[in-house]
Prior knowledge:
Elements: E1 2-4, E2 6-9, E3 14-20, E4 54-57, H1 66-75, E5 82-85, H2 90-101, E6 108-111, E7 124-127, E8 132-136
Parallel strand pairs: 3-4, 4-5, 5-6
Antiparallel strand pairs: 1-8, 2-6, 3-7, 7-8
Amino acid sequence: MSAAAEILVPGSGGEGAALVLTAPISFWGGVDPKSGRIADVRHPQHGETISGRVLFLPGTIGSSSASAVLMELVHNCHAPAALVLHEPDAILLLGLIVAREMGWETPVALRLGGDMFDAYRGKRVSVAENGALTETA
Length: 137
């Protein structure tokens, strides 16, 4: 399986196991910035780590602090290998933009139709800087 996605925020390409979230998430209080684990006990993927994974986000639950949490994840080396969003979230993506301005290596953030997410569930995915997603062995 391969697809071309729209680049929302340029960054480093990466590879990792896909983590396709089944529900929107709040980064503020929902993700531990020190470990990259999903901390929200009400979230279906509670306990999973987003660190080093290709994170497919069906949506986010808004908080103006989401950008700070994502920036902390980048700084703490617990950011996802790439972010794939169904719809852009300007507040969340601001964390990547600020981290890049600080000179930190950031993952690429992409937009891909949510109807494509399930094709990557349980797979290893390579994400290129140009927005190409490819299932790897």
